[in-house]
Amino acid sequence: MHVTKQRLLDAGLPMLLAHGYNDLGIQALLAATGVPKGSFYHHFEDKEDFALQVVDQYMRGVHDALDGCLGDTSRPPLERVRSFFETTQEHYREEGYMGCLLGGLGQELSGVSEVFRRKIEECFSEIVEQLTVCLDEARQRGEIPAGSDARRMASLLVDCWEGAALRSRLRRDAAPLDAMLDFFFRSVVAS
């Protein structure tokens, strides 16, 4: 990837987290990166294209974390799933508890942009699919009840996480994330 494009994408993520899509000014992005306006439009069609590519970059990081945590077969499946969320929580802490880019953009844009609504739903679905595989393995190994619906559990886990991420952002601390994870994993094992 071209170095200028990568610099814009790298700066775009924290700016989108902090300001959202509607308040992200292209001029502010250009000023933060020292990139001329013409270079921005060389790499991106418009602001929407830029934000969608930031989402793609964000998802590459999510997939790397999913692969790293869920793929660690030396650990039990439920531990691997929890590890993914704890790794994500650590990223949130490093970013000042700004939360999930997908959740933030979804709340801001899903009612006004079909393109963003579909893109963000697709991203959440990809996460759910990967978690489903690991939760199904936990079911097969007897870590969770045999009658458990792994896909439904994965979807609920992502939904609960997103709500906790919003509360964490509002409070600027990890307490909602910790409470959600503790509750979910206690409930899953006890089911």
Report on the architecture of this protein.
77% of the residues lie in helices and 0% in strands. It has 191 residues and is an all-alpha fold. The N and C termini lie far apart (47 Å).
Break the fold down into its secondary structure elements and pairings.
Elements: H1 3-19, H2 26-33, H3 37-43, H4 47-70, H5 77-94, H6 101-109, H7 114-140, H8 150-171, H9 175-190
Helix pairs in contact: 1-2, 1-4, 4-5, 4-7, 5-7, 6-7, 7-8, 8-9
Shape: elongated
The helical percent reads over 70%
Sheet/helix structural class: mainly alpha
Beta strands, count: 0
N-end to C-end Cα span: 47 Å
Largest sheet: none
Contiguous uncertain segments of 5+ residues: none
Radius of gyration: 18 Å
Name the helix and strand elements from N-terminus to C-terminus, one letter apiece. HHHHHHHHH
**Average pLDDT score:** 95
Strand content: under 5%
Counted by DSSP, the helix tally is 9
Key structural traits:
about 190 residues, 9 helices, about 75% helix, mainly alpha, elongated
Provide a concise account of the structure shown.
The chain is mainly α and 191 residues long. It has helices at residues 3-19, 26-33, 37-43, 47-70, 77-94, 101-109, 114-140, 150-171, 175-190. The chain is elongated and about 60 Å long.
